[in-house]
């Protein structure tokens, strides 16, 4: 025989007072025991639990956390980790947007074309503003990407973090190496990322060239490459 829960024994009936008229027309109180509905039992159980187990009052404290961010680039030889330049917040967000753009198109990898779309999706960097000022928009890059690489299978689902293609990995490595070679202090910016895309013979460069980007425009980006780090002050 299965054991019956204690609550169901103790709460299966509840006393209910009801005035009943007898044969001598006098009113007297009768106590009836009526069965509980499951909803009433649950309500009583909740009230009983709350009464016997009061919720402790926790003091509210401000909590702070320090998070370090980086991108999957190779470390140049001969550079100690403490001297390795950090990526700016805008560059990190551009990379995250690149992964998102690859997933939107259901591509299995994050390529140089996705890095370019990520820069435009983030949108607040000097490099992104320069591209838009020269008619290179996210919509146009996305359209050229589909023309160049085609559409993915509609039933294919990209991984949460599509792995980098070899050209895209070289773009990140190039950006780090160029920053180290410059000898300048500061962070690796979106400008470095854009110049890295232009340096690599891949889909990203082909799309840029199709939309009017050239070596002269690359030189313009190079002039402002170290001036796009103010936004990263809030990230350690």
Q: Please report the number of helical segments.
A: 10
**Strand numbers in spatial order across the main sheet:** 1-2
The mean pLDDT is 77
Low-confidence stretches: 4-12, 36-53, 55-68, 231-236
Cα-atom radius of gyration: 33 Å
Supply the helix-strand structural class.
mainly alpha
Helix content: 40-55%
- Percent strand equals 5-15%
Number of distinct beta strands: 2
The major beta sheet can be summarized as: 2 strands, antiparallel
Q: What is the H/E order?
A: HEEHHHHHHHHH
Shape: globular
N- to C-terminal distance? 64 Å
Oligomeric state: single chain
Q: What is the topology?
A:
Blueprint: H1 6-10, E1 13-21, E2 27-35, H2 38-52, H3 89-104, H4 112-122, H5 126-133, H6 138-149, H7 166-182, H8 190-199, H9 203-210, H10 215-223
Antiparallel strand pairs: 1-2
Can you tell me about this structure?
With 236 residues, the protein is mainly α. It is 47% helix and 8% strand. The chain contains ten helices and two strands. A two-stranded antiparallel sheet has the order 1-2. Helix 3 crosses helix 4 (112-122). The longest helix is centred in the C-terminal third of the chain and has 17 residues, at 166-182. It is globular. It starts with 5 loop residues before the first helix and ends in a 13-residue tail after the last helix. Residues 4-12, 36-53, 55-68 and 231-236 have low confidence and may be disordered.
